[in-house]
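Translate structure to sequence.
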C-alpha cells in the first residue's frame, strides 16, 4: 500500500493547491453529506400528512447545515480560485472532474431549497435542529412544491452516484497513478497555502 505521506512522484501537481481551511471544509461537508444519506434511508417516507419525526428534523437540519457550509465554500473558492491540476490525465478526464465539482456545487446549493419547498407542501415545519423555526417556502399542498420534492430526490440520488465516481477517481489517482491528486485534498499534505 502506498503511504499517504509518500514522496511526490514526477507527476505531482505543481500549482498551489487547496488551503488548509478548504481541505477541512471539503472533508466536513463530505462527512455530513454521507451521514445525511444514512439519515435519509432511516427516516420515514413523506406523505401528505407526515407527522413530525426526529429523523426528519435531522434530515432538514443536516441539509441546511450543508447549504450554509457550501455557500461559505463557494464564496471562498470565488475569492481564491484553485485551478484543476491533473498533469498526467487526458483532457476528457479533466473535463469530467471539473463537471463533477460543478455538479456538487449545483446540487448542494440548489436542491436543499427544493426539499425545503417540498416540506412546506407536505405541511411539515422546518427547523434548524429544533431550535430555529424557519418560514414556509410554499403553500401546503402546492403542486409545484410536490414536484420540487421529486426533483430534490432525483438530484440527491444522482449526487450519491457522482460521489461514488468522484471518490473512486480520487483513489485510482492515489493508488494506481500515484500522481498526487489525492494529496492535494488531504489535511497534512504539504504546507497550508
Ligand atoms: C445535503 C442535503 C440533502 C440531501 C443529500 C438530501 C437527500 C434527500 C434524498 C436522497 C431524498 C429522497 C428520499 C427518498 O427517495 O425516499 C430526500 C427527500 C426529501 N428531503 Fe432531502 N436532502 C437534503 C436536504 C434537504 C433539506 C435542507 C430539506 C428541507 C429543509 C429536505 C427535505 C426533504 C423532503 C421534504 C424530502 C421528501 C421529498 C418528497 O418525497 O416529496 N432535504 N432528501
Ligand atoms: C459527499 C462527498 C464529497 C463531496 C460533496 C465532494 C466535493 C468535492 C468538490 C466540490 C471538490 C472540488 C474542490 C472544491 O471546491 O473544494 C472536491 C475535490 C476533491 N475531492 Fe471531493 N467530495 C466528496 C468526497 C470525496 C471523497 C470520499 C474523496 C476521496 C476518496 C474526495 C477526494 C477529493 C479530491 C482528491 C479532490 C481534489 C481534486 C483536485 O485535484 O482538484 N472527495 N470534492
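Result:
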Amino acid at each position: 500500500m502506498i503511504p499517504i505521506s509518500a514522496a511526490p512522484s514526477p507527476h505531482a501537481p505543481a500549482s498551489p493547491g487547496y488551503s488548509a481551511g478548504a481541505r477541512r471544509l471539503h472533508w466536513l461537508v463530505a462527512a455530513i453529506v454521507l451521514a445525511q444519506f444514512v439519515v435519509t434511508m432511516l427516516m420515514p417516507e413523506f406523505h401528505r400528512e407526515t407527522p413530525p419525526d426526529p429523523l426528519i428534523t435531522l434530515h432538514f437540519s443536516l441539509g441546511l447545515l450543508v447549504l450554509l457550509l457550501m455557500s461559505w465554500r463557494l464564496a471562498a473558492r470565488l475569492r481564491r480560485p484553485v485551478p484543476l491540476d491533473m498533469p498526467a490525465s487526458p483532457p476528457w478526464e479533466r473535463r469530467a472532474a471539473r463537471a463533477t465539482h460543478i455538479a456538487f456545487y449545483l446540487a448542494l446549493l440548489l436542491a436543499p431549497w427544493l426539499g425545503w419547498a417540498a416540506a412546506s407542501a407536505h405541511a411539515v415545519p422546518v427547523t434548524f435542529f429544533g431550535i430555529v423555526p424557519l418560514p414556509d417556502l410554499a403553500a401546503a399542498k402546492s403542486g409545484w412544491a410536490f414536484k420540487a420534492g421529486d426533483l430534490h430526490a432525483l438530484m440527491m440520488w444522482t449526487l450519491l452516484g457522482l460521489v461514488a465516481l468522484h471518490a473512486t477517481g480520487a483513489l485510482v489517482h492515489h493508488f494506481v497513478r500515484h500522481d498526487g491528486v489525492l494529496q492535494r485534498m488531504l489535511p497534512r499534505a504539504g504546507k497550508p497555502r
